[in-house]
Batch of 2 targets.
Target 1
Amino acid sequence: MGTQSYKPDGGEVGGELDLVKTPDGNMVVRCRNCAYGNIFHQPYPYHAGFGNQGFLYNDAGNRTLIWSTFDPAYCSAVGSVHPWVLDSSQRLALESKLLESTTGGRWAFGNPARCLQCHEPISGPITDTIYYLQYDDSVDADEGLKLGQFIRSSA
Ligand SMILES: [Zn+2]
């Protein structure tokens, strides 16, 4: 792995979550546009740097793709570099190899997490914030290092 220590710490959207933790271990992210309470079945916003993970949202901003920095399919696409420090050509290289989400379009570094009701951004992409939201029915390719299952076979 590289030795870069830089981590994004909140852009225009990320880092400014209007967040409430619920007694049952979930959290609600309030949309600043429509005030809808988006429920996430996670106890807190996950920190990709602590977990050595990458994350992307789909075009619709309603699914999350999560993978490991150490996933062989990821390393073969961009090299041994953490996902939050990829340059633009490495981002494009990875995006072009990924299969589309089963719903809501492509996985892309420019996609924010979006409100499930009004579709305005509620949290930034990995280029803005190291914290991510895991939508229901997301793709966790970290468990089992299986990002290769979501890579185009012809890429
Ligand atoms: Zn909203």
Note: Residues 74 and 137 are 21 Å apart (CA to CA).
Target 2
Amino acid sequence: MSPLWYTDRSRFMRGFECRWKRLLEYHAFRDGIVGRGLATPLLTGRYVHSALESLLHFVKNNEQAPDIGVVNQLLVKVLQSYQEQIEKDAAASQDEAATQLDLVVGITHAYARVVVPYLKEHFRIVDIERELSWQLPDSNIIWMARPDFTAEQLLGGELTTHDFKTTSYWNNETGPLQWANSAQMMANAWAVSQTSSRPLGPYYMHMLVKGNAKYPNLLTHAFYRPGNPPLVKEEWQANYTRQKGFSRVRIAAYRNLPEWIWEADTKALGEKLPVVGPYPAHQTTCASFFRGVVVEEKWWQEQTEFLDGVDWNFEWPRPEFQKELDEHFPRTYACHDFSGRKCQFYSLCHKQPGWVDPLAVGSHLRRTLNHPQEGGKK
Ligand code: SF4
């Protein structure tokens, strides 16, 4: 049998958006590249995960619920490391960097305040960010997964799988439908069941609504009316108000953001961090999903065979090589999303200045490997 082939949910899905997206993000320039311009929001997602991971370890190991002091302490290292990373990313403006940093702080404190009590009431946390992998039957394919955490239900003892998902927008009516029958999420639950020898349990999604530049939310921004001491006190409102004199401001520029979060209305905070589920995971759907994974990944193995040992720096700009890539990997050319944002590889596919050497010009960075197992592949 040929050498082991490593895959995961993200690259499997990326290939269906556009073959070139997966090619560039996971296979080109050895282990793939990512657009530098997108690095900041992506980085925020990663650091939010990291902060929540520390928080969950605290919850797992302590009877007491985390308070504002504990969360501030847990955030010190995460924020320091985030700040260092973000400073390296020339694509982030100062304003953007500050807001992204606030998001990590705001989401973590709000999660500690409104979601942790729910978790403590209903679950016992079992594993946090545990790497799972197993070989799919009759294939050389290793499926890698890392659910954000698994937890046993206090009532009934069922093992459940939980994933965080940052999103700009959330609708309580339609949002939950997005995750029902999600074969990708079932695959995580399946991985947990396979590697723990426990029955296949349900999954939950922990949505982290971060808003966007146009519609930031109360985790980072609020409406403020300056005071005129000693006659008029300053005023704050979490939601939009027509009252005169109010304008939307970055909370941390005026006051202590963690204190704002711990004083805010818990219902309003909860709306920014909805936990949806339990969603049942079905054996038949999982089996069907993985049969499809084997077919798809075999295609990728065959199509990428000619890339083994390629000197990307030399070959990439050559027209013959570009033609060969076209012949192996059809593109969708659906290069803008619904909000008009460009695909991270737009400058490469559309041969814009610098496309011939994306790593040297700094438009793109090498991808950070998602799982330690994939380090030795190919
Ligand atoms: S820029 Fe367009 S063609 Fe290129 S990877 Fe993105 S979606 Fe595909």
Note: The chain has 13 helices and 13 strands.
